[in-house]
Amino acid sequence: MVTLNLIDASASTISYSLVTFPDGQPHIKMTVPPEPDRSEGCRIITRISSPADLLLALFAKNTLTYEGFEKVELYISYLLAARMDRVMTAGEPFSLKVIAQMINSCDFSKIKIFDPHSEVSTALIDKSYAITNIQFVKDAVEDYRKKTASAYLQEFCIVSPDAGALKKIYKVAEAMNNMDVVECMKNRDVKTGSLSGFKVFSKTLTGRTCFIIDDICDGGGTFIGVANELRKLGAEKIVLIVSHGIFSKGLSLENVDEIYCTDSYRNIVEDDAHITVMNVLNYLT
Known about the structure:
Blueprint: E1 2-5, E2 15-20, E3 26-31, E4 42-48, H1 51-66, E5 72-79, H2 95-104, E6 110-114, H3 120-124, E7 128-131, H4 134-148, E8 156-160, H5 166-175, E9 181-188, E10 195-200, E11 209-217, H6 221-232, E12 237-245, E13 258-262, E14 275-278, H7 281-284
Parallel strand pairs: 1-4, 4-5, 5-6, 6-7, 8-9, 8-11, 11-12, 12-13, 13-14
Antiparallel strand pairs: 2-3, 9-10
């Protein structure tokens, strides 16, 4: 199966060039080699971080269909609107459903999504499957363990930052030899987005290294609030592990000592010693 890699052109077996027209429309021009057996299909690897990314992926599918590929798969490192998996308040759209309808219109033969926000994504998008964050988390914890020469179980625990993350967290903990899980909660005003009422369900975390695990870090308010409470309980080190790093307010998060993320949403230059960025292609394919 040949690959059109829209994240890393150097890893693409189909060469291409990208253009943005003056009106903002993305455009792609491919050079498809004549050798591949079109019946074997093609896979498109992309991040959908913006409407332009989505259009580009759909345009690519259209091109490959005209080029005679009978099967085209789509591998998504980041899915636009995945967090808008319901109508939050009156007067707002069901954004994920709209995105799903656009993707479904292209009739991909298979779709894989790296760590989508919830199961709603795979429910709405036809022939789609979630790639869990488990291997990424394992790699992050192992890298931290090696760097710090820490004990593997006794000193570590996994932190679920809110109720929404619990289901995923316990699957991760099971895969990590049933590592201890610390549950947290918060209150969010869906109209304003403001956060309050952070609570950690543990009596003490003295001497522990706490890995806060979640799918997305946007502004980081949730993780700052949780980290502050973990520190009050004596946590020695606080490490944030997130699959998708947006970091709209920067990479510095109060009381978070280290960050692990992937380049699923955007390329991140590791110009700060406290962040480690892993290649999402290691988990997406």
